[in-house]
Amino acid sequence: MYNRSIRKRPMFNRHEIKSQLAKLLATEDLVVENKKVETACFNVHTRVLTLPMWEKASSTVYDLLVGHEVGHALYTPDENWLEKHKIPPQFVNVVEDVRIEKLMKRRYPGLSKTFYKGYGELAEEDFFQIEDDDLNTYNLADRINLYYKIGNFVKVPFEDDEMDLFSMIGETETFADVLIAAEELYKFCKKKQEEEMKTPMDSLESEQGGGTDPATEMSDETQDGEGEEESEGDNMAEDQQETTNTGADVSEDPEVKTMESLEEALKQLVENGGPENVYLELPKLDLNKIIVPNSEIHDNCNKHWNSWLEEVEFTYEESFGDIDRKFLEFKKSAQKEVNYLVKEFECKKAADSYARATTARTGVLDCSKLHTYKYNEDLFKKVTTLADGKNHGLVFVLDWSGSMADVMLDTVKQLFNLVWFCKKVAIPFDVYAFTSDYPLVSYDGDGKAILRELAYTKKDGLVQVGEWFSLMNLLTSKTNGKTLEDQMRNIFRLANTFRWNSYTRYPTPYGMSLSGTPLNETMVALHQVLPKFQKEHKLQKVQCVVLTDGEAAMPKYHREVQRRWEEEPFMGTAHIGPNAYLRDRKTGMTYSLDCEWYEFTDVLLNNLRDRFKDINFIGIRVLESRDAGSFIRRYCGYMSPETDRIMSIWKKQRAFSLKNSGYHTYFGLSANALAQDADFEVAEDATKTQIKSAFAKSLKSKKMNKKILGEFVELVA
After folding, report:
1. For residue 580, which of 70, 79, 278, 715 is within the disulfide window of CB 3.0 to 4.6 Å?
2. Which residues pair with 622 in a beta bridge?
3. CA–CA separation, 260 vs 324, rounded Å?
């Protein structure tokens, strides 16, 4: 069966899986990047480990190379040793490789097998380019490099006078030891090179001194002055000179050929085709620059409407009388439903508390049990300790986009049910609406508007959050009961202005009109909103409910661009492609962005869930009947039994729930069902059974309540 589960499907390609391996081995928040580079490198300053995309390497060789580079990340210090030690870097690398691989195998014994098999493959493929060579002709640095890497597969010879230095290198524990050993190794190879160069020169001089000078003989034969013969003789002399200087210059440093050969061979494993990987991060937003305070929202509404009343000379009753009475009627009708939710909440909370209760003996005799002393040893009173319930809170995010116009009023009604419930059971809450229309501006001393500042500093590789994005704090538990009711009435008025078939005599305040759908920007902002809310109210558990009727567009990311005709680069933007990855340095997680545009929100939700383990994310998707099928197939697959099952539930109940999206629970609700009201009437002296029966009957036509409110109570309790 096909299952598109966002949480379960593979999120990483091969390279990113190896990146996770590197992070696990390093046991620190390393930044690992897979890029189209020829060799691996580690920046000890930024703690960025760059790995080539060894596309042609086997999994074992890949693991070997990753383990090796992590060894450098863990054990190679950040210091400029070249200032004090005049040693060719190759010699330091040879010794340091010995040390870090020894330490990695000591730290992770399982890597010994990986190194053994990996180097075995490299030896078999002759990555060191030593096939058919006499290793006795290699200098000591080369042979040590070969011994500690592929010594299990190739017999590497050593002389007696080399064994002390050989042991010294194998016993290095610190980088200081490495520098001392590398310097000794370099001196030894340098001395050997000089000795080898002197030996052939001495032999040649000896041979030339015992015979006839070829130049004298040649001059006797060419007394007639033929220039061609003279030229030929000169060339022969030059050739002879070149022959005597075939070895390296004595003044030159010795080289580690096997190190160079391995580096060149590894380059052949790198995949250079295709686009470069891009690693993105989310910006940390300044909430003061994106959140419209609760008081400002309603001051704006009240001032706008009062000013308008003065201008048009309408009475308050003429403009707001009817709509305000409808609000009071709805509030009255909703109280019974809210009270039922409160009762259910208290029952579930008590049941959960008793389920986690502990019982202990007090040490005080229970007199009622004394007569059973002959056959009962449990004669002491007991005390039951109830587990303390967790402190809960709610953050509700409302879609304030234009497509919500027709269902906004009914959505707001359901929101009010939750708000009144939270208020009665003393659960802290905040209600936000995301918008791209509210003009967050400030003013200078002369009353001149100051353009809005971006909520973060632009940086290469940051996901873009538009400067037009705002979160309006519509309602909050911080206000008292009277203020909360006044604010809810304002929201009720606003919701009525959006319906195409609704006639209101009052206008929509400036900045409060419906706008676009900055849902993804909201997900970014929740990284700061949720922990701030949790800290302010000292909460242990938070429910985040997001209600929307559509998906958001894929955002762009900031990218530094250098134009040929400009001296300085500028910060531009680029589209997110399939080669992009979202990286979270705090959790160490990396998420592939090789997804459809509408799946980006799920990626952001996955990141939020990984970051905030104690927060439940609930999605409520308002659906038109024509959109339900495609939405369900998007998450359950095409031609899938699960799709058939969910579609059957949808046809019967006009509502369903999914568990395989970015949300913990994702509800699909019919837009038409939102507007269906049902009476909930019970007698004042009704029993609990009668209340339940009446409520269940009303829920038959209130499918969304059955799903949303029921789930909400379960989570909070």
Report:
1. 278
2. 669
3. 82
Model confidence band, residue 270 (pLDDT cutoffs 50, 70, 90): confident
Structure pTM?
Answer: 0.73
Which two three-digit tokens encode residue 141?
Answer: 């640095």
Cα 418 from Cα 704, distance rounded (Å): 13
State how far the Cα of 394 lies from the Cα of 323, in Å rounded to an integer: 28
Q: Which of 340, 324, 276 is nearest to 690 (CA)?
A: 340
The dotted CATH code for 287-319+390-716 is 3.40.50.410
- Per-residue confidence at 517, pLDDT binned at 50, 70, 90? very high
Q: Percentage of the chain surpassing pLDDT 90? A: 43
Strands 31-35 and 449-450, sheet pairing: unpaired
Q: Is the pLDDT of residue 220 over 50?
A: no
State the DSSP code for 655: E
Sign of torsion over alpha carbons 506, 510, 512, 513: positive
Cα–Cα distance measured from residue 362 to residue 369, given in angstroms and rounded to the nearest whole number: 14
In angstroms, how far apart are the furthest CA atoms of the chain? Answer: 146
Contact 156, 146 (CB under 8 A): yes
Q: Looking up tokens 């009353």, which residue turns up?
A: 447
Question: Of 522, 521, 539, nearest to 477 (Cα)?
Answer: 539
Determine the Cα–Cα distance for residues 677 and 700; give it in Å rounded to an integer: 10
Distances (CA, A) of 482 to 296, 416, 428, 485: 17, 15, 17, 5
Across 292-313, b (16+ Cβ under 10 Å) vs e yields bebeebbebbeebbeeebeeee
Structure tokens at 349: 């909370």
Please identify which residue in the block is written with the tokens 């209760």. 357
- The pLDDT confidence band at residue 101, using thresholds 50, 70 and 90, is very high
Express each pLDDT in 573-622 by its tens digit: 999 998 899 989 888 788 989 988 989 999 999 999 999 999 999 999 98
Q: Give Rg (Cα) of the chain.
A: 39
User: What tokens appear for 264 in the block?
Assistant: 């060149």
For residue 217, the model assigns a pLDDT of: 42
**CB neighbours of residue 57 within 10 Å:** 23
Given a cut of 50, whether residue 124 has pLDDT beyond it is yes
pLDDT in tens, 425-438: 888 999 999 998 88
What percentage of the chain has pLDDT greater than the value 70? 74
CB 2 within 8 A of CB 637: yes
The rounded distance, in Å, linking the Cα atoms of 605 and 21 is 24
CA distance 5 to 642: 12
Strands in 193-289 per DSSP E: 278-280
- Backbone phi, psi, residue 385, to 5°: -105, 120
Which is more confidently placed, 540 or 379?
540
Number of Cβ within 10 Å of residue 128's Cβ equals 23
Q: How confident is the model at residue 455 (pLDDT cuts 50, 70, 90)?
A: very high
Q: Where are the alpha helices (DSSP H) in 451-500?
A: 481-497
**Comparing 97-101, 170-174, 332-336, 474-478, which segment has the lowest mean pLDDT?**
332-336
- Amino acid making up residue 61: V
Tokens encoding 288: 């003061």
DSSP-assigned letters across all residues of 306-340 = HHHHHHHT--HHHHHHHHHHHHHHHHHHHHHHHHH
- Give 192: exposed, middle or buried? Use CB within 10 Å, 0-12, 13-18, 19+: middle
Q: Do 657 and 649 form a contact (C-beta atoms < 8 A)?
A: no
Q: Which amino acid is at 77?
A: P
Strand pairing category for 541-548 and 615-623: parallel
What are 687-709's pLDDT values in tens digits? 667 666 665 555 555 545 555 66
Domain map of the chain by residue range? 14-198+260-267, 287-319+390-716
